[in-house]
Design goal:
heterodimer; A: Peroxisomal Thiolase, Chain A, domain 1; Peroxisomal Thiolase, Chain A, domain 1; 10-stranded mixed β-sheet; 11 helices; 34% helix; globular; B: alpha/beta; two-stranded antiparallel sheet; 12 helices
Chain lengths: 354, 399
Amino acid sequence: MKMYIRGTGNISPQKTFGDVPFLEEPVLYNGIRLTCIEPDYKDIIDPKMIRRMSRIIRMGVAAANACLQEAAIPVPDAIITGTAYGCLQDTDLFLTKMVEQKEELLTPTAFIQSTHNTIGAQIGLLLKSHNYNNAFVHRGFSFESALLDGIMLLMENDASNVLVGAIDEITDNSHAILKRFGLYRTAAVSNMDLYSTVSRGTIAGEGATFFLLAKEPSSHDYAQLNGLATFYKPKDHAETEQHIVNFLATHSVHISDIDLVIIGRNGNAKDDAVYDRLTQTIFNTSILANYKNLCGEYPTAAAFALWLAAGIIKNGIVPAVLNVSNTTGKTMKKILIHNHYQDTHHSLLLVSAC
Amino acid sequence: MSTTVFIVGVGAISAIGDNVAGCLASFKKGKAGIGDMVYLDSAYKNKIPVAEVKHTNEQLAALAGMSPKISRTALLSSIAAKEAMDDAGISNMDALRTGFISANTVGGMDKTENFFSEFLSNPGKGKLRNVVNHECGSVTELVADQLGIKNYVSTISTACSSSANAIFLAARMIRHNMLDVVIAGGADAITKFTLNGFNTLMILDSDYCKPFDENRKGLNLGEGAGYVVLVSEKIAKTLPKKAYCTLSGYCNANDAYHQTASSPDGIGSYLAMDGALKKSGLLPSDIDYINLHGTGTQNNDIAEGTAIKRLFDPHYPKMSSTKTFTGHTLGACGGLEAVFSAMAIHHKIIYPNLRLQTPMKELPFVPETVLGENITVRHALSNSFGFGGNCSSLIFSKL
């Protein structure tokens, strides 16, 4: 399978949006919540529209817009989004008013914008595009499901390019609730110390990350996307390994051909144990890189990893913040991403140089 | 990529029946499921009619074999998905690549609503078990785990076209030879959140809805779940029972007009229907029945009707909105109406469009007002259009 990442747009807790150096100035956080660095939307979205949009819609529309601009595709053949939690701020607002006002005197705006397809719909509306438009909402598979849909459309020749994105936001209420579930550290931690202080819980993240995937190559592609696989609730470590072995075999790649493996360590001992085992087996000779100290943990974080892999291949450098040794003088031609969310949703992505 | 996709199992629960047979019996009796609110605890009790499934959560939980404490949407989903799977009668599921692709619009919102009232007074309060399945995907996973399906599990949420898109995706995954068997469709329970949301939009009829009537005043919310089992030709051949029909065409298009309103000319609806016809290689004259989206709002029915006029004039197939029986079940309607379309072909029946008194003056056609029996339906078109301009059409074809 050969598809081309022609453009990206990424709003994240790092400086990743617009014409910025590739992760050269890492943003440090001390706490348990990483927040997206939002651009000045005035230059990107019609100010009249901005006022009506909630934060996640702004982030999604701006990231999609930047991605299309970079790819020089005015209107894509399909718009496909993935979000685990959807438009939380609007959901929260409508729910709060409904409870507080006892179902009386409510206004529709927050309800309208709370539906899970709002971001994809807004992108379509702004582009006046009648093309294919879909929205996936499956927890730690939301982004991967959207990506698979896009890949299938390209294979079916029903699209020559697709816009695929992942969007998830943290709100004060969602953070408070997820914290009560024990997802996060109980004490503040520096994101750069996440892996040296592995214990119970991780740090929360969010992001809006879009990709323009094309069937044909161009002169300005980031990388090729060669493979995607997901697996759900592996019963044990052996099954996880078997899926990775099968994935590599399907794509006729040996693990020694992989220049870099990006894994989704999040500093939570239980989650990281999955990668620890793999580091002793399949990945024992691989060069490994972590990324969730940069963007935090959230169900669609694999989109950040794909952006990172595409950037490493395009720029020909592994940013120093990834703290990966043994890469000097080595060109990064093939990158494998293995991400899992709570050992329930696993995904594998294979990216290579064009 | 060329394999035909067969529908070999169906499952449904709605205000007019706990299973497919129950729903069909109500269609034959002309008995709608709309009425006063009994199970939802809302300030709009006795003010806004709804089409509820006539069971408490405890009764549904017993039918589903699940805990009554989980979301009503998961209970409905489980009941219909299991019926579909049993109906297909595939004995060697474990040896096949199976998928569960479901849809819903608000996940476990019915429980989140309870959580939120306590949580707002004190962020340390509210039972966490009431929000643990808030996400749309969690509702799907509860059912996938119960059914033992794990090769592919996903959830789509494109408002009222959600479950049509789930069925659409399932067919494509079979055509790509990624899966052998997929249970696809959707579920939604009525929640206060959606009831209040639609109420602020002023598109709820305070009486029983009248789709495609000149004097229509809005929709009635309903709840339920509908699933079909899709298989490849190879698997269909191994089954003891003949398939009901095939899924021959599908298309997803966007109206790109407004976040909640349809364009006056129904461009999205037109493109979805036209695209589905092209995919199936059929002509408009091949369609014998249209299961309308037909919500009963001023806006939907004129947009959908105008698009049908543009595509089908002057030869109109028989058509009806089964929402006159089930109410608008949102994330479930594409699934339920796929089941009804498949059954229209299989049982040679056309469902009536209830309460239609004065046909819309802008349209040259009138939906069926009485039950049609012994009518050969070669191809049935099912429309599902939603907020965000998401329009999807599916075509089911006689074997």
